[in-house]
């Protein structure tokens, strides 16, 4: 069969697309594997060889994890921690960025350097002494203990500042002449203008905070206060290892962040690359 | 009397410092003070002191902690493991992200599909990821042993345990690097590539001589990012190997956690935390110096 040049090009394009997609599928295959086997009975999972076809599909693992573990409670804790942290980071970083961009005051340079320098101190370096602080404040197993240390980040301030710098200062002068106060300018003009940046920050923070492991592991030790990641961690390292249940629990924990990621990816990419957010 | 500036029609501008400006940055400064600077200084202080069971200061001991920590061979074994994990992670994460970014640079219909798949694992938390990888790695009827027809204990036998930890780490880290590289590669102007193509530059030449130099700021940023994140592998070690077998996958972060939280030796953990800080600081400095020499800014 003879192909015209155009057809050849088309075939080449399709082949390229297919190969790239196959590589992608291979890369996400652990997720697909986890999903498929979470619907298999423990008997199938322990029979050699492992097989997917010809075995019966079952929801039992999901029924088990929801009934044996306070999975909904874990999820509730994760959601509370995420929402409060995101809200706090956005408010506090907007206020600080507004101060740094639109006001002049003594020591501004020094204070800004102090803020940016926090990015040079990895959280892992201070995590142990922060744990001591939270313990001394009697905040182990409290939302406050989970949330307080991550209520602000240098990257959030930096990102908001980068955006506020693009708002012309004339806007502020004009608004002041029209009798618009400083706080009114922030909430009525600066914040509404930066909604896309704020959404980027919020989605990025959601994926980051929801997936936190080290800190909630340290400051929670009761089922009532554990977040979903710690709950799944307990399931993995627990005494009774039932892989069907473990996989079902893992899928439940993965779903929220994957949904947020898939729908918010453009915002995440924008936020990451605009402010040079660290991963 | 009318002020002169008003006569000239210029608005009178008094340079007035508003107390509001300090109030705006106050919450951020307080939180940074409490949870970044105070603990950092406390880490330094405690590294020269003894602590009680709950991690509070009891008495000064000078350099004793430092000498004790740095003179133990077990500490240096942990450092070697840390560097090994970080090195493997850096090379493979960067390599795979480069390949993915080059594959996805060209925007075509539906390219979003594979672009999403290349980045997706970055949204997966380490504990569910560890759950799935354990199912793949487990010795009795694990997926990997099924596929290979082996009975290897992937998470508790060397050298497999090291590679098991690294494979999961790389899988989780590729996405972030991929996104930064992709943005860099897509910045390369279309006409530059086209004229290179017209002049007969093959795909490899175009990558080497055009795409990589133009995207060099992103490439260096990604290296910086990976150096940072490579040292922080914790959850995967805790959940997959617990630092074993025979401490051969125990990195510095895990050692710090073990000393402080499990053994209650906070002063030891503080010395090690400062060592970690020094290592990351030193490597990022080298990287910045190299960046100044190599990177091509447009």
Summarize this, please?
The complex is a heterodimer of chains A (279) and B (298). Chain A is built from 15 helices and no strands. Chain A is mainly α.
Topology:
The complex is a heterodimer of chains A (279) and B (298).
Chain A: H1 5-27, H2 29-37, H3 42-46, H4 60-68, H5 71-102, H6 108-117, H7 123-136, H8 143-147, H9 154-164, H10 169-177, H11 182-193, H12 195-210, H13 214-219, H14 228-237, H15 243-275
Helix pairs in contact in A: 2-15, 4-15, 5-9, 5-12, 5-14, 12-15, 14-15
Chain B: H1 4-7, H2 19-46, E1 49-51, E2 57-60, H3 64-70, H4 73-104, H5 111-119, H6 126-137, H7 143-148, H8 160-186, H9 190-198, H10 203-214, H11 216-230, H12 235-241, H13 252-262, H14 266-294
Antiparallel strand pairs in B: 1-2
Helix pairs in contact in B: 4-8, 4-11, 6-12, 8-11, 8-12, 9-10, 11-14, 13-14
């Amino acid at each position: 069969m003879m192909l015209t040049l155009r057809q050849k090009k088309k075939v080449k394009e399709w082949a390229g697309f297919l190969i790239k997609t196959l590589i992608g599928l291979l890369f996400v295959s652990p997720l697909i594997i986890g999903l498929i086997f979470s619907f298999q009975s423990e008997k199938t999972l322990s029979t050699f060889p492992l097989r997917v076809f010809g075995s019966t599909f079952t929801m039992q693992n999901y029924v088990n994890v929801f009934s044996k573990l306070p999975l909904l409670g874990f999820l509730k804790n994760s959601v509370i921690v995420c929402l409060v942290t995101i809200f706090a980071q956005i408010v506090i970083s907007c206020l600080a960025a507004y101060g740094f961009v639109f006001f002049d005051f003594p020591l501004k340079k020094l204070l800004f350097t102090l803020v940016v320098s926090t990015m040079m101190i990895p959280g892992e370096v201070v995590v142990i002494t922060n744990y001591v602080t939270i313990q001394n404040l009697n905040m182990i197993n409290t939302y406050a203990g989970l949330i307080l240390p991550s209520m602000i980040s240098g990257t959030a301030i930096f990102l908001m500042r980068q955006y506020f710098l693009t708002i012309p200062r004339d806007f502020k002068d004009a608004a002041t002449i029209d009798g618009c106060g400083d706080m009114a300018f922030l909430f009525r003009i600066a914040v509404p203008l930066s909604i896309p940046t704020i959404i980027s920050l919020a989605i990025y923070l959601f994926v980051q905070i929801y997936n936190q492991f080290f800190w909630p592991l340290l400051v929670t030790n009761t089922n009532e206060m554990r977040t979903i990641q710690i709950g799944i961690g307990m399931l993995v390292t627990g005494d009774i290892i039932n892989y069907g249940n473990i996989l079902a629990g893992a899928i439940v924990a993965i779903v929220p962040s994957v949904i947020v990621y898939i729908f918010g990816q453009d915002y995440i990419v924008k936020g990451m690359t605009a402010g040079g957010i660290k991963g | 009397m009318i002020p002169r500036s008003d006569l000239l029609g210029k608005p009178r501008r008094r340079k007035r410092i508003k107390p509001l400006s300090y109030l705006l940055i106050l919450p951020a400064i307080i939180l940074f003070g409490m949870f970044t600077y105070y603990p950092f200084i406390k880490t330094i202080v405690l590294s020269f002191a003894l602590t009680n069971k709950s991690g509070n200061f009891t008495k000064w001991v000078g350099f004793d902690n430092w000498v004790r920590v740095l003179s133990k061979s077990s500490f240096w074994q942990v450092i070697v493991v840390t560097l090994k994990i970080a090195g493997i992670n850096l090379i493979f994460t960067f390599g795979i992200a480069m390949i993915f970014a080059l594959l996805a640079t060209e925007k075509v219909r539906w390219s979003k599909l594979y672009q999403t798949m290349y980045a997706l694992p970055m949204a997966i938390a380490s504990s569910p990821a560890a759950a799935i990888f354990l199912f793949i790695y487990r010795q009795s009827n694990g997926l990997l042993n099924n596929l290979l027809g082996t009975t290897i204990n992937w998470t508790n036998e060397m050298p497999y345990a090291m590679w098991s930890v690294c494979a999961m780490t790389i899988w989780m880290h590729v996405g972030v690097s991929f996104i930064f590289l992709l943005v860099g590669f897509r910045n390369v102007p279309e006409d530059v590539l086209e004229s290179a193509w017209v002049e007969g530059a093959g795909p490899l030449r175009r990558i080497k001589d055009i795409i990589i130099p133009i995207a060099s700021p992103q490439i260096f940023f990604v290296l910086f990012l990976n150096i940072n994140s490579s040292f922080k592998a914790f959850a995967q070690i805790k959940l997959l190997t617990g630092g074993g077998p025979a401490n051969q996958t125990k990195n510095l972060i895990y050692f710090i956690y073990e000393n402080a939280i499990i053994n209650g030796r906070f002063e030891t953990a503080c010395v090690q935390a400062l060592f970690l800080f020094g290592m990351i600081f030193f490597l990022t400095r080298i990287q910045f110096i190299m960046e100044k020499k190599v990177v091509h800014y447009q």
